[in-house]
């Protein structure tokens, strides 16, 4: 979150207000919103909001820039380390996201016809849905999924709704945070950045 009412020469570092919570139903900034898939950086977002006449700018989810004239008081300030999504074009971070905001559902996967077939990575240590979402974000895929407790799948095609099953079938704990679920045996939790 940045205050840009007066734009100094180093407008990103000197106007940084901190990391704040945010959600789709109660946004921290309620002005203009735009997605910059490859070119987002805090500098770019601050400049965009400043040129659009807004007082505040905020980056979210590594790709989204929000502008506004006031801060929604319903949100709370977090630790800076909670906003740890890297920007595509910057050494700075570009916010964070909630995995649950992006969960589409639990789906049946198949060895012969994978739901998300563009990329498969096996990560056995410190694996969580957030790590898989970060991989998807950095590589530019539209969807990702966690399966079998250690697999991260990516792809650009949304799974067919006829393959969706109950969340209770995607109950395998994640090695990086056992309170989170990382799919199951031939069951995959699928996430998307488009679900708001």
UniProtKB/TrEMBL annotation:
Cellular localisation: Membrane
Pfam families with a match to the protein in the record: WSC (PF01822)
GO cellular component, one term: plasma membrane
PROSITE patterns to which the protein is assigned, alphabetical: WSC
Residue ranges annotated for the WSC domain, each copy included: 13-106, 107-194
Keywords: Glycoprotein, Membrane, Signal, Transmembrane, Transmembrane helix
SMART domains: WSC (SM00321)
Record's bilayer topology term: Single-pass membrane protein
Domain of life: Eukaryota
Signal sequence, renumbered to the chain: none
PANTHER family: KREMEN PROTEIN, PROTEIN SLG1
The protein, known as: WSC domain-containing protein
Organism of derivation: Rhodnius prolixus (Triatomid bug)
The organism's taxonomic lineage, starting at the top: Eukaryota, Metazoa, Ecdysozoa, Arthropoda, Hexapoda
């Amino acid at each position: 979150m940045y205050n840009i009412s007066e734009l100094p020469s180093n407008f990103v570092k000197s106007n940084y207000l901190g990391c704040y919570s945010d959600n789709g139903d109660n946004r921290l900034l309620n002005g203009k919103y735009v997605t910059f898939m490859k070119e987002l950086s805090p500098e770019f977002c601050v400049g965009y909001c400043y040129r659009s006449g807004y007082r505040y700018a905020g980056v979210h989810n590594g790709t989204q820039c929000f502008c506004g004239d006031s801060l929604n008081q319903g949100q709370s300030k977090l630790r800076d380390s909670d906003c740890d999504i890297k920007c595509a074009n910057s050494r700075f971070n570009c916010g964070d996201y909630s995995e649950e905001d992006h969960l589409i559902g639990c789906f049946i996967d198949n060895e012969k016809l994978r739901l998300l077939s563009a990329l498969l990575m096996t990560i056995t240590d410190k694996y969580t849905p957030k790590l898989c979402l970060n991989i998807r974000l950095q590589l530019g895929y539209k969807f990702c999924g966690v399966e079998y407790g250690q697999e991260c799948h990516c792809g650009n095609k949304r799974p067919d709704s006829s393959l969706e099953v109950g969340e209770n079938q995607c109950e395998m704990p994640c090695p990086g945070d056992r309170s989170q679920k990382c799919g199951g045996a031939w069951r995959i939790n699928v996430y998307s950045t488009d679900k708001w």
